[in-house]
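Journal club side-thread
Mid-discussion, someone asked how the predicted structure for our own chain would compare to the paper's figures. Pasting it here so we can look after the session.
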Amino acid sequence: MAFDEKLVDRIRESLVNIQKVEEKNMFGGVCFMVDGKMCVGVVKDEMMCRIDPSMDEIALEKQGCRRMDFTGKPMKGYVFISDEGMKTKKLFDYWIDLCLDFNSRAKAAKKPKKKEK
């Protein structure tokens, strides 16, 4: 599945001064992990943002923002941002800052235990 490489580059550039950033190919796109936690990514031509779940309703009122419903079930604290919601640097930076702010408080996903041989 193709994804917007220019958007990936925009995100990569915005995170250049952030420590502990790792890129992972996920859900047919790219996810940027910060400090071992999912933070922001690209799916097709949209930015996927992990935000504070308490900010969902405020975020969803913004132009170009929609709830992430990857499996058909809405996911609280995850939104997709279309091009119209991040067409200016100010709008783009708003979403990146929202992701980074929550990342500092977010819990990392539990890693599966390795099976002993």
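Post-session note: The chain has one domain: 5-103.
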